[in-house]
């Protein structure tokens, strides 16, 4: 009996700017945001590709990646964060990008 390997999950902290018609953040109100994204992927480059596609489809311009890491290879994530644990488990169970914290700043 073989045991299936647990899917690898990557977490990225991405700086974005909402574009016109973005339904997640109104560009009239939010100048930008940092979004924590979780995704099943075989590599960091695959994770970034999936996140790029998802954020672009949601009408965000990607300004920069602060980081993108395999959640099992690092100890950066707060182990007591229920939201992070929930997002990681959702990403393990489901394909696609899971959005966690969204920290937006307003238009000046």
Q: What's the rounded overall pLDDT mean?
A: 91
Q: What does the radius of gyration come to?
A: 15 Å
- Low-pLDDT residue spans: none
Helix percentage range: 10-25%
> How many runs of DSSP E, i.e. beta strands?
4
Tell me the fraction of residues in β-strands, as a range. 35-45%
Largest sheet: 4 strands, antiparallel
Helix-strand string: EEHEHE
List the total number of helices: 2
Number of structural domains: 1
- Structural classification: alpha+beta
Distance between the termini: 60 Å
Strand order of the largest sheet: 3-1-2-4
Q: Which overall shape is indicated by the principal axes computed on the Cα atoms?
A: globular
């Amino acid at each position: 009996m073989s045991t299936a390997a647990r899917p690898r999950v990557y977490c990225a902290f991405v700086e974005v700017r909402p574009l016109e018609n973005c339904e997640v953040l109104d560009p009239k109100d939010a100048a930008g945001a940092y979004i924590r994204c979780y995704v099943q992927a075989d590599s960091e480059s695959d994770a970034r590709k999936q996140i790029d596609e998802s954020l672009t489809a949601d009408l965000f311009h990607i300004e920069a990646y602060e980081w993108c890491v395999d959640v099992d290879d690092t100890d950066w994530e707060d182990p007591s964060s229920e939201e992070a644990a929930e997002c990681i488990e959702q990403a393990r169970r489901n394909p696609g990008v899971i959005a966690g914290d969204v920290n937006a700043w307003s238009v000046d």
